[in-house]
Amino acid sequence: MKLYSRIYEAKCKPEEIKEDIIILHGLFGISDNWVGFARQFSKYHRIIIPDLRNHGQSFHNDSFELDDLVADLLNVINENNSKSPILLGHSLGGRIAMRFALLYPKLISRLIVVDISLRSVRKKPEHIAIINIMKSFPIDEMKSLEQIKDYLFNNIKHEKLRRIVLKNILKTSDSFQWKVYFKPLIKLFDKESEAIATDQVFEKETLFIRGGNSNYILDSDIAMIKEHFPNSEIKTIEGASHWVQADKPLEFIKTVISFIDKK
To answer: What does the DSSP 8-state code read for residue 164?
Structure first.
């Protein structure tokens, strides 16, 4: 099945166009979150931003394993005739991108991984909060967007988490419903994200970006990263949490552009 994707053409002359960039959002994210960044990155690159299965406008499926998501990405590359794209993935999107790069190194040119490592990831308080509010949220009782916002304001302390939940609500002609398909996501969430255990190596240029206030990429992870991505560098954006791009957008854009356009 085909993922819904947003596509932004390169702004430059045809002869100046470089490789595509495929952006992969994280758990509970949607492609819309990356539109502003796509416009910044599209000077020389076509940008493709799919909604992962069970997210946004993409199809729903009870199977939600990492290998399913890698297969979906392969379909995106083939459907868009994307030749040696750069992969950029945040959180779960970063895990998909890493797994894809290790399995299909010849199909991509470079890799950008945002605030996620190869090791297993335990449940984080922020994700637990999102799951809990979505499970208990009386969406069928909501009559207006203002009512939804008031409910979220009274039940979620952090504005960032409120925005994530709000982005996952769809208004229909006479009601509200979830964009995200919970069942398989909760199943994945309930078991710890397993480490990407492999002997494979991706030798092409790779950039890891981590938030200075995040613990998703620790100094203790660097040896494993270097083992599987020997041509990698790690940049830390100080003052940023796991949602690096949301906390420090200007620094994030500058870091990515310096990597994608250095050739």
So the answer is: H
